[in-house]
Amino acid sequence: MKQYAIGVDMGGTNTAYALISRDGTVVERGSLPTTGHISAQVWAEKLWESLREMIERNGVGEEIEGIGIGAPCANTITGCIEAATDLPWPSPIPLKERMERLSGIRVSVANDANAAAMGERIYGAAKGVDNFIMLTLGTGVGSGIVCDGNLILGSRSFAGELGHIYFEFAKGRPCGCGREGCLQTVASAKGIVLTARKMLEERDIPSSLRSIPVAQLSSKDVAEAAQRGDLLAREIIAFTGRAIGEACATFAAFSDPELIVLFGGVAKAGRILTDAAELEFRRKALHLYADKVRFRISELPDSDAALLGAAAMVTTVSGD
Ligand SMILES: [Zn+2]
């Protein structure tokens, strides 16, 4: 059993990487710009140069299990980045093939939400759990479903777009996918802001949120106000939590999870959010699941979550 993996978190402007030991310790980290390279091939060469130097510096050349790369629109089955709109090069980019050719090391790629789910399974709140659903609550809502110990990929690696399932509580809210009523229009950071604007307008109870210009109001403001005890802010977070709970009551019937892990900026709202979610889940779920599912907030540190998730792909999904 090899003792290290390399995690790469590829973003539109920056690519972070780290050497990670089997117990989840970040041994060394670094980064390089994603932009500014003439082609994806040049970027891959620069990345490998940095990784090779890092491996040599640490004297672990024989101990690398693989390289895991988390990237937007990355397809685990094809190993390509497909239709990515926020990268400077045309898609598809054959990331796995290219990096394997350069490095001679096995490479796994995954989209951000799937990588986050595997990170949680290997290093975080779902350690050792074979059946769980991970919801990443950020700008949008992503998800990773682990069932019987396997990450569910589907026929083309697009399984589990749970953020784009229709719910009555989101009715009338337009979604970035071109439809309306998707979970993500309520449970994302943007969704919280929409709910806040609506409640601020409809209710006349005092709230510290009223001192923030409406156009500048963020989900973080709402979460912080809720934690300070602001009643209206608490109500906004509780509404969001109930929506997540109701959605998960539906999702539970699909894969019979024992755990739901909430990850991302919105999850920072903490217990107010998870308590509301759990309560609503118990009310709405089929009796088979109602008392059997726990809700937890991600345990991965913000700064390392994406890197740990990418590295976790190495030990769990070969992509071959
Ligand atoms: Zn949608």
Describe this structure in words.
This protein is an alpha/beta fold and 320 residues long. It folds into two domains: 4-118 and 304-316, ATPase, nucleotide binding domain (Nucleotidyltransferase, domain 5), CATH 3.30.420; 128-297, Nucleotidyltransferase, domain 5. Helix content is 38%, strand content 18%. It has ten helices and ten strands. The strands form two sheets. It has a five-stranded mixed sheet. Strand 2 and strand 3 form a beta hairpin. It binds zinc ion.
Top CATH class of the largest domain: Alpha Beta
Q: Whole-number radius of gyration?
A: 20 Å
Q: Write down the secondary-structure element order.
A: EEEHEHEHEEEHHHHEHHEH
Tell me the fraction of residues in β-strands, as a range. Answer: 15-25%
Approximate shape: globular
Taking strands numbered 1, 2, ... along the chain, how are they ordered across the largest sheet?
Answer: 3-2-1-4-5
How many strands? Answer: 10
Structural key phrases:
320 residues, alpha/beta, Nucleotidyltransferase, domain 5, 2 domains, 10 helices, binds zinc ion
How would you summarize the topology of this molecule?
Elements: E1 4-10, E2 14-21, E3 26-33, H1 40-58, E4 64-70, H2 95-103, E5 107-110, H3 112-123, E6 132-137, E7 141-147, E8 150-151, H4 184-187, H5 189-202, H6 219-227, H7 231-255, E9 259-263, H8 271-284, H9 287-290, E10 294-297, H10 305-316
Parallel strand pairs: 1-4, 4-5, 6-9, 9-10
Antiparallel strand pairs: 1-2, 2-3, 6-7, 7-8
